[in-house]
Amino acid sequence: MNLAAMDPTTYDVQLEAKCVKLKQLFADFDTPELESFSSEPAHYRMRAEFRVWHEGEDLYYYMFDKELDSKVRCDQFLPASELINKMMPVLVELLKPNTILRHRLFQIDFLSTLSGEILVSLLYHKQLDSEWEQQAKILKQTLSTQFNVNLIGRARKQKIILDKDFVVESLNVAGKQLQYHQIENSFTQPNGKVSVKMLEWAIDVTKNSSGDLLELYCGNGNFSIALAQNFERVLATELAKPSVESAQYNIKVNQVDNLQIIRMSAEDFTEAMAKKRSFRRLEGIDLDSYNCNTIFVDPPRAGLDADTVKLVQGYERIVYISCNPHTLIDNLGELSKTHKITRFALFDQFPYTDHMESGVFLEKK
Known about the structure:
By secondary structure, this protein is an alpha/beta fold. 29% of the residues lie in helices and 31% in strands.
């Protein structure tokens, strides 16, 4: 991370440069006008991870700057949420005099929400005992006078949860309040306000839908829950067990009654849909009863494998969110043979970096 490049006064310029670059990358495709969704220029990340440096009586956060090829002290961190920045100095001052809590502490992770909740994970190169837990409880009690906070202690093969290991985010999406269960150490959208813009864009592009929606790589149900209002039913797949558990919590708390989550990989689900294999996890689920003419995919950086691309091509409408424009372009080489791109978007999840989160909406030719 290039910390020196994080200058809010240059934000608009760097966003425009990303837009130009993305349009150039997609120059071989017939794309509509690019829709650009900006971030806040500061305090946009809901998560942050810091290494901890011990120097005599001093203790401070640091990150490694690749551009400078050195560690950089971080008493405050511009990308992190205001809540994280408020917590950082308070926490470190409480840890400094506490020999039990600071001993062999090497990393501190923060997970915050727009709705005011924060989770702190303390990572150690030692085993944690009852004495550590007692001191951690006192620390939490002290922090709780200022923050809605929970603490976790982590060491090798150890995880001590003082109360809970998740936060509940509350987002206003297209005039509707949605709640999302977010577990420590699991994937969540890092930029809360841009995440809302992504959800609203996906709702907008699918607003005139009919039939059912299939979603692959659904995570904690982030998109499926927001999009359920546009479809008769939603069938979603996700492999990671913690994400599936979060998704089930989110379905219940948001009172969504037309969404079913299946715990399996997109690749296995592709084989099931092609009738190549049968899976016990699909027992009792009649896939043929779904009338899915829209598919939503938000794959990992590697993009879609060849078999999943073929599966996706069988749907009338495709919503594709990508964290890697290069693998999206590779997939579009095949998808554009059968579908036309009718919406094209850039979501600036990670300002001041080369990262470009993009979205395309495709309709069958």
